[in-house]
Amino acid sequence: xxxxxxxxxxxxxxxxxxxxxxxxxxxxxxxxxxxxxxxxxxxxxxxxxxxxxxxxxxxxxxxxxxxxxxxxxxxxxxxxxxxxxxxxxxxxxxxxxxxxxxxxxxxxxxxxxxxxxxxxxxxxxxxxxxxxxxxxxxxxxxxxxxxxxxxxxxxxxxxxxxxxxxxxxxxxxxxxxxxxxxxxxxxxxxxxxxxxxxxxxxxxxxxx
Length: 208
Hints:
10 helices; eight-stranded parallel barrel
């Protein structure tokens, strides 16, 4: 089970300072959507240069231009780039193609997808390497992390890895680990902590 740290600082300098503290315990370092929009793809280049042995993820959430935008993100330093399952299939396939031409990985985020289990089968058939079951940040007041969907979707896919995201805290980790995701995405619990290293260590203590 891998840990993805969703880093959504306002500047790449802030993101690098956070990574300096937590990097030994992180498998995938995410240049979050907010950070990516503010800093551009140069944030990917700087993060990859600082941590060449980590998987750097661009949470671009591409909705159009999957091949072109995805390719640019990969060429800037990303190992993994995201799109969203709600967009059209041509965009989705374009990102997969851009990734696999470069021996990189494509991730699709199911944020807002109404029929997750049906869509996951389609996304798996398209060739996605990672499928993230994600409760939107703006919906955390009424929805929790989709643990039951993780259990179901792991049985439905043939090749893709299944991950979980959505306001995950250290206290929730026993429940999260019990649904056996392939990787776990944690953002706010790390970013907003006064002691992010202790948080990351605590998260890892639950992960097999």
